Amino acid sequence: MLGVDVYPGLALGPQRIGDRFYRDREPAAHMALFPSTCDRVSKPPPPARLLAPPPVLHGEPTAQAQKDDVKMDLENSSLWKQFSSVGTEMIITKKGRRMFPGMKLKVSGLNPSLRYILLLDIIPMDNSRYRFQGGGWQAVGGAEDRLPDRVFIHPDSPATGAHWQSRTVSFHYAKLTNNTLDTHGHIILHSLHRYQPRVHVIEARDMLSWGGGQHSFVFPETQFITVTAYQNSKITELKISSNPFAKGFREEGMNSKKQRDARQKRKLADMSESVPIGNCDPCDSTQHHPNITGADLQALALASLPADPSCRFQDTLVPEQPLDLDEAFMTSQIPDISEVTNTIIESSDSLSEAAFTTSFQATQTSSPSFVPLPQPSPFPSDPSEPPGDYPAVLSSSPTLSSTTSPSLQQTAFTFPTPPSSSSSPSYQANPELDTSFPPCQSQEQMSLLMQQDDNISTGRNSPAKQTSEAFIYPTNLTSIPEPQPALGAPPAPFAFPAPMQNLSFPSQALHLSNLAQQNQAASFSATFPHHSSSSLPFQTSSCFPSTPHPQNLNNMAPSYPSVELGGIPQFSPAGPYRSDVMLHHPSLLQQREPPLPIPPATPSIYPPFTSYPLRLHQDPHPSLSIPLRPLYRHQHPHTQGSFLDVNTGAVF
DNA sequence: TCTGCTTACACGTTTGAACCGC
DNA sequence: AGCGGTTCAAACGTGTAAGCAG
After folding, report:
1. For strand A115-133 and strand A150-153, is the pairing parallel, antiparallel, or unpaired?
2. SS3 letters for A361-407?
3. Which of A86, A442, A512, A550 could cysteine-pair with A323, CB 3.0–4.6 Å?
4. pLDDT digit string (tens) for A137-167?
5. Can you give the distance from the CA of residue A190 to the C1' of nucleotide B5 in angstroms?
6. In the structure, how far is the CA atom of residue A51 from the C1' atom of nucleotide B14, in angstroms?
7. What is the C-alpha to C-alpha distance for residues A248 and A588, in angstroms, rounded to an integer?
8. How many angstroms separate the CA atoms of A352 and A107, rounded?
9. Nearest nucleotide (C1') to the CA of residue A95?
10. Quick one: pLDDT at residue A143?
11. How many angstroms is C1' of C4 away from CA of A638?
12. What pLDDT does residue A225 have?
């Protein structure tokens, strides 16, 4: 829908033709699975029937909620927060570049016997393009057109809940590229844009009824700005110090600047062949500075980091965007039909969808723009001083949108709600976060920090203290203005299990819709300062939203329509933090409350994003996928994950 | 001239095949 | 023959810097 419905140009572009199954490192395994884009363009897909908006749970989770209380922790959260405190940059290259830090996750709450598919997708944070100016990132214009949406399917998918919960789930094989013609299936992003990764857990009950439940997780500290070359030297230092592949660039490494300079000098000397190389070269790597150690240099690098751990990225709400998953593709990923079917556990009461969104908290500013950062002092005098943070880019924070779909009128609003301390101990005051980067943090301390991170990954430490749980917000889903069938249209040719009766099954391949340019419902946004009050329970967490204080709620970005907050109980300032889970269940369809009043539209320099749920689609011709599934598995016994072009089909 | 992107480069890490011993 | 451990080389990942394009 992105390419076809929203960006027709993309659908017809040359990159569409090349989209095929692709397995990384084995480009020979290209297979056409879905009809060509042109074919699908000529044949409008069946309408998508959306999941009902989930009920917002208040208070203690219900028994139903507990039953499917899927949680996800970001295990290397502390590392992410280090980068986020500076302003994470991700290199994107034509050939594709891995993310660093990677997404290391711990999943819990899954049904051990059910199968799940884990996906990673990356969505733009706003409609802005950024430039690094004055030591900070500044929005300098409108974003480029949205590129083909692709998702990365974890190579273990589908696997049982027991499998996912027994280990750390890592998406480090996922690659980012700026090549719009990429045929490797890497996730295509624009340079100098701001993105937010999302992780989706999709239940795959069996071949024909996957998608019984769905959970999406967003970790605000993982948002980043894409670059082709690092702009912020602090990010470079952090990457070099923490990425094992970049060890060569550390001070003690052979590819350090000192060593490189020495090599270059030697090279020049060899070329001249006239000047003998002596041992007195001050840049020679064989000479050491006895008083400067690697720890000192690293400490100096760390000291230059801002003392305040707050995120460099401000807290724009992550726009919910749908990930339409075509069953034809998803089932093609299931290697053993019988095995899957044997594991079916009919649970008609299980949730069918849960959406979790979150946002970075915002500073106390009404500026909707991303202004230059003040240069952080390497030796801050007052740790409590509000950080020189990025003012918020409040593209959709929070959003309130509704659609006028004749068949399913739904309302969605998204707002930050930090989890409760009881359910998310990782949000407790964390000394590690509090101290952030002491000016003279030693290498030993840093190593310990890293080790803690490793311990988290290996489960040696209590994740409750070391990990960051995904923010879970009560989020109603926005109905996607899919093409609706004409009245009296024939019913769908397939009957699905009860939990899927309210799903839509267009013929589109696995599809991540971008509705940013569709008719948008009104949105409102607000800032959620994270250092506004010492009484806020989560102020010590660098990247966590703070309580939506009424004053701050009133301090909304002027470019966004206002909303009557009193009509939204979740904005009650007295409300405690808690992680709410939204469940989609057919039985709740009839219990939907009327949509919230749409705030009056006001001029906005940042077009608000529509709130996008993760949508499940079922191919009306599932047989297409059957022969390809075992074929794929046989050809790719050692999978490293699958990339999927959600517009045209799967690429591995 | 400036900004952003591509490419070659050198280095370190990862991975898997080959080899060896039990 | 099978298994486990070690070694080694190729592939891969990384940041840097020069060069190019707009």
Report:
1. antiparallel
2. CCCCCCCCCCCCCCCCCCCCCCCCCCCCCCCCCCCCCCEEEECCCCC
3. A512
4. 888 888 888 777 788 888 888 888 988 998 8
5. 12
6. 43
7. 57
8. 18
9. B6
10. 84
11. 22
12. 92
Q: So what's the pLDDT on residue A585?
A: 27
534-573 on A, CB < 7 Å from strand C: none
- Residue A98 in contact with residue A254, Cβ under 8 Å? no
Residue environment code for A433-442, b if the CB has 16+ CB neighbours within 10 A, otherwise e:
beebbbeebe
Q: Tell me if the bond preceding A158 is cis, omega within 30° of 0.
A: yes
Residue A457: C-alpha distances to residues A75, A134, A160 (Å): 6, 36, 20
Kindly write down the DSSP assignment for every residue of A279-330, as one continuous string. Answer: TT-TT-TT---TT--HHHHHHHHHHTS-SS---SS--PBPPP---BEEHHHH
A380-395 in b/e burial notation, b at 16+ Cβ within 10 A? Answer: beeeeeebbbbbbbbb
Closest CA to A399 of A410, A387, A411: A411
| Across all strands, nucleotide nearest A253 (CA–C1') | B11
Say whether the CB atom of A83 is under 7 angstroms from strand C. Answer: no
pLDDT at A206: 53
pLDDT of residue A325: 57
**For position A148, what pLDDT does the model report?**
72
Do the Cβ atoms of A583 and A215 come closer than 8 Å? Answer: no
Asked if residue A248 keeps its beta carbon closer than 7 A to nucleic acid strand C, the reply is yes
Judge contact between A102 and A176, C-beta under 8 A. Answer: no
- What's A23's DSSP letter? B
- Determine the pLDDT at residue A645: 55
| B chain positions with any atom within 7 Å of a protein CB | 3-7, 10-14, 16
Ranges of residues in chain A whose predicted pLDDT is under 70: 1-68, 205-212, 251-652
pLDDT score at A195:
92
Assess whether A253 (CB) lies less than 7 A from strand B.
Answer: yes
In the prediction, which pLDDT does A380 show? 31
Cβ of A374 near strand C (under 7 Å)? The reply is: no
DSSP one-letter string for A560-622: S----GGG-GGG-TTPPP--------GGGGGGPPPPPPPPPP---SSPPPPP----EE--S-G
